[in-house]
């Protein structure tokens, strides 16, 4: 794999173009494009130490990790990509099953010279993190995951769930639709995505952050690609049903927000893995790295200490 520096990422979505970064961020982190064959990936890198891959969730970008990245960079070589279809990375028509998304990130880490690495994945990043650990077991040293059911591993909730569960999960079915979701959300991105951020937070995300995420989805191609990982769920579920036949043995930290999924993340990972530590973050709902960055940072630092050593 080769790194491509033909153009430098600039403007909205790059380190030089996103709002309200922590002080000193641009002195540590830079944006770059890495060409991994069929995909040009945008990645933010910085820091020193063993490599740590941060995998964002939906409907976010690498920016979701911004509040914990500076402190992590003191101990780790931090790699925070925009996954296929999001942010400044390429938007191919296909390849949104988690097997392909995980392979994208292995190719990225190869291009950056990282043979073995630790992973933290949030939301759909947890789906990709599981695929990374299952499909590339020799590559992943430790895995931290947060805040989502795992399709094909978690029991599927009923269609006629209670109102609370329906509010939390109805977007799974909506996002899987072929095109009517694009049609309904176009011009109403602030309503749909704004609702997602507002209703899944115990501590409200800053307005500038929500605005940034929504702005990244107003382009029709970006909006369409944002749903792609959900549209590929049939393939991902089939993959996960095969993956769970061989249990994971690496150390896993399973993080849930007190006001969101709580202990359910650990319960889910125990269906597929043998060495699972549970953590419920107090005062937090879904957006753990943004609602409670200090607690998230402390948890990751403690969990990754043996890997760093």
Account of the 3D structure:
With 309 residues, this protein is of the alpha/beta class. It has 14 helices and eight strands. The protein has an eight-stranded mixed beta sheet with strand order 1-2-4-3-5-6-7-8, sandwiched between helices. α3 packs across α4 and α7 packs across α8. It is globular and about 50 Å long. It starts with 24 loop residues before the first helix and ends with a helix. The N terminus is likely disordered.
Radius of gyration: 18 Å
> How many β-strand runs?
8
How confident is the prediction overall: mean pLDDT?
Answer: 96
The SSE order reads: HEEEHEHEHEHHHHHHHEHEHH
- The gross shape turns out to be globular
Strand order, biggest sheet?
1-2-4-3-5-6-7-8
- Helix percent reads 25-40%
Task: Please work out how many helical segments DSSP would assign.
Answer: 14
Roughly what fraction of the amino acids lie in strands?
A: 15-25%
Low-pLDDT runs of 5+ residues are 1-6
Structural class: alpha/beta
Q: What profile does the largest beta sheet have?
A: 8 strands, mixed
End-to-end span in angstroms? Answer: 29 Å
Give the key terms:
309 residues, alpha/beta, eight-stranded mixed β-sheet
